[in-house]
Amino acid sequence: MELWVRSQDKLDLIKCTSIHIEEAPGVDEVAIKTFNYGDKYTYVGYYETKERAIEILTDIQRIIHLKDMYINDRDEVLKAWTKFTEEQIGDVRTKMSVYEMPQE
């Protein structure tokens, strides 16, 4: 599965192989980092709580799942989309291409 992530500061666009939440001792923020090919990593976002970082990771997981469904069973996904507004569909399609890390 190909996943592109745009960093919180908008300076990096990373094709990543995995995403990890990192809590550093003595630091107030929780970091989310992506691993790239070759085991290099990039910090893509910083959040106030571990719970917020988990929410973001869950959102990314949902997008990956939807992208898999879209690839494997496009007709079912298109049928389900009839329940959404055009704005919601546009948001999902955008995130399926590149996930942009939220500011907060």
Q: What is the percent of helical residues?
A: 40-55%
Structural class: alpha+beta
Indicate the multimeric state: single chain
Helical run tally: 3
* Average of pLDDT: 82
Q: What is the H-and-E element order?
A: EEEEEHHHE
Radius of gyration: 15 Å
Uncertain runs are: none
Quantity of strands, as a count: 6
For the biggest β-sheet, the strand order reads 2-1-6
Sheet having the most strands: 3 strands, mixed
Beta-strand residue percentage: 25-35%
Overall geometry comes to globular
Number of domains: 1
End-to-end Cα distance: 26 Å
Question: What can you see in these coordinates?
Answer:
The chain has 104 residues and is an alpha+beta fold. It has one domain (3-97). Helices cover 40% and strands 28% of the residues. The protein is built from 3 helices and 6 strands; from the N terminus they run βββββαααβ. The protein has helices at residues 50-72, 74-80, 86-97, and strands at residues 3-6, 13-16, 18-23, 30-35, 41-47, 99-100. A 3-stranded mixed beta sheet has the order 2-1-6. The protein has a 3-stranded antiparallel beta sheet with strand order 3-4-5, with helices on one face. The longest helix is centred in the middle third of the chain and has 23 residues, at 50-72.
Notable features of this structure?
about 100 residues, alpha+beta, three-stranded mixed β-sheet, three-stranded antiparallel β-sheet, 6 strands, about 40% helix, about 30% strand
What is the topology?
Blueprint: E1 3-6, E2 13-16, E3 18-23, E4 30-35, E5 41-47, H1 50-72, H2 74-80, H3 86-97, E6 99-100
Parallel strand pairs: 1-6
Antiparallel strand pairs: 1-2, 3-4, 4-5
Helix pairs in contact: 1-2
